[in-house]
Amino acid sequence: MTKVTKPFRHFAGNCWLNGKAVAVYGDENGVQLRAETTGFKHVPGTRVDEMTREQYEALRESWAEGCLDRSDARIQQRALRHLGLEV
After folding, report:
1. pLDDT digit string (tens) for the chain, length 87 residues
2. How far apart are CA 57 and CA 31, in angstroms?
3. What is the arrangement of strands in the sheet containing 30-37, beginning at the earlier edge strand?
4. What distance in Å separates the CA atoms of residue 5 and residue 83, rounded to the nearest whole number?
5. What's the pTM value of the predicted model, to 2 decimals?
6. Whole-angstrom Cα distance, residue 23 to residue 42?
7. Rounded-to-integer distance, Cα 72 and Cα 63, Å
8. DSSP secondary-structure letter at 38?
């Protein structure tokens, strides 16, 4: 597991799904994604993903396809699947 080294920014989809969410950490140098529980603990069996801000924005757009806004459980579901959790 890669350790998160960047400040917290937001949760993908701005919601929790079954007590889990993808937390987005980032700064000007890049973004880190980590699946977390409501207790802000790493979800076992998932990875921490690191990418550039541009890569994250493109991924975020693909997760939001078909959603009306950035607060949608489908975004969270797609983000959790990206990190290896089947929900």
Report:
1. 568 889 999 999 889 999 999 999 999 999 999 999 999 999 999 999 999 999 999 999 999 999 887 778 999 999 999 999 988
2. 10
3. 8-11, 20-27, 30-37, 49-51
4. 17
5. 0.90
6. 10
7. 10
8. T
